[in-house]
């Protein structure tokens, strides 16, 4: 049974209310339509039989026509003598059951139903259809392979309920002995061959035709074609997978080559900038050697040009001497520029070297543990070195106010007063002189030499091991060697200085 068609019949019949028995008959139009369909079927059968069988004599043909006329008359009587019903229901026109694929027909949400009443009146009822939200599962039935129509089993159209069995998991159920037994159906079926005098209903019959015989050769051919198709699809899949793999490798290689090209171009640009920076702001001895070599090459090239012009008699002797003189003046200026750059580079390099040394002195100790990690340890010596570095950086800071500068000088003075030696006394003397000049309102420019001398003295104070124990790691000559070759100044500096001072006073 067609699922949708059965659902429509169920909805229509459920909304109709029975009113009792009545004597309504089929309308005449219905009877005529049935007769017409029966005649068309018989004519088609006759045509088929005539095409297949041999021609019959006229007497037999006339007899068969009379029998068919009698059969049609009886069919008409049966149609007219139909028992009375409550009413005849005609659905809205639509495709017949199994007329085509499911997508050929789309059920509307509402449709009208005509109800023929007893007094030949027609009543129209609007029926609402509740459509399923998902496709019905194909649990059972059959499918028409010609038009693709699906016929569902009644099991899929009805609500099923659970039938629990009391002994579902019992031993008696698991070990039950089954036997085969023949039974009679509740309704008997039979078949009847058309004979004269018997009218057989043929409206619901179906003509079944045998398909062409499927031989073993055809089966082998179909099997071979299917195998070739599967092999073709598999080879295509393998080829596509290989193509994707090679395409990815190609893209990765192109990307890698592009990255290498970018890296080389970036390195070339960095080297070019570095070479320009080395010539504009040289810092190392190699930079100055490059400048000297380029200057010598330029001088030799210019001298060669002048001499070649004189040899070609383009310049006279006097003009050649003047040109060489001008070349010498330019070379002298360039040498002076190189010397100025060298002096400024020396100052900058010295400041950088001092900053690196002070940072290394004040850095925390890194002790390696047994698990391979490192632990930062701050010792009293590193703390002392950090305080001295901060004081040195304060002395080097420019553009300070008078109060800030005096505050820094006071802290430096307190730090060096902890020791009594010629170096500390000289530092204190320089601090007092600068403080006096600041109080007098002297300019910053007039104090540059004094401040430079103070910074150098304080740096010497920082590099002394007695005042800064962390400086021992940065001594060019180890302390043990100095102790072996010199006096015990490093062990008792204050006692030695005090004894020397007493001797001077006694003299």
Strand order of the biggest β-sheet: 1-2-3
H/E order of the elements? HHHEEEEEHHHHHEEHHHHHH
Number of strands: 7
**Rg from Cα:** 60 Å
| Overall 3D shape | elongated
Q: Unreliable segments (pLDDT under 50, ≥5 consecutive)?
A: 1-27, 77-102, 488-496
Strand content bin: 5-15%
On the 0 to 100 scale, the average pLDDT is 77
Number of helices: 14
> Main beta sheet: strand number and arrangement?
3 strands, antiparallel
Helix content: 55-70%
Terminal residue distance? 141 Å
Question: Structural class of the helices, strands and pairings?
Answer: mainly alpha
Descriptive notes:
The protein has helices spanning 3-15, 28-52, 58-80, 154-157, 171-174, 216-280, 285-311, 317-362, 380-396, 402-416, 422-439, 448-463, 479-485, 493-506; strands spanning 88-90, 110-116, 122-128, 141-143, 150-152, 365-368, 374-377. A hairpin with a 5-residue loop joins strand 2 and strand 3. The radius of gyration is 60 Å and the shape is elongated. The strands form 3 sheets. The protein has a 3-stranded antiparallel sheet with strand order 1-2-3, covered by helices on one side. The chain has a two-stranded antiparallel sheet with strand order 4-5. The chain has 14 helices and 7 strands. It is mainly α and 507 residues long.
